[in-house]
User: Fold this.
Amino acid sequence: MAHQSSTGLRNAMVVAMQAALANGRIDIYSGPPPASADDAPTGTLLLRVSKAGDGSPLAMGTTPSGGLLKKPVGDIWRGTVLASGTAGYYRYVVTTDTGAPSLTECRMQ
Assistant:
C-alpha cells in the first residue's frame, strides 16, 4: 500500500520544519558523512553558506505552497570558502549548533 499525504499535511509539516531550522546555515564538508546527523561532523569544513555570505542566518519563506518551502526571492545565499578540497556532504544546522554529538539539535544532512 502506497503512502500519500495531503497538501495540507505537507504544508503543516513544512511550517514545523521551518520553525525548527530557523536561523540556519549550510556547512559543506569533505569526505563521507557521519552515520547520523546526531553525530559530530566528519571531514574538513570547506564552505559555509549564509545570507549574502556575511554570516547572517539563512531565512525561509513564510508561506509554504504545495508542501514546499522556498527561500525568500530577494535573499541571496552565498558561500564563504574556508578550505580547499572535494565536497562530500552538506549539513544544514542552526547557527547556535556547536557541532558536538547531540540528540536535540535540529540538523539535516
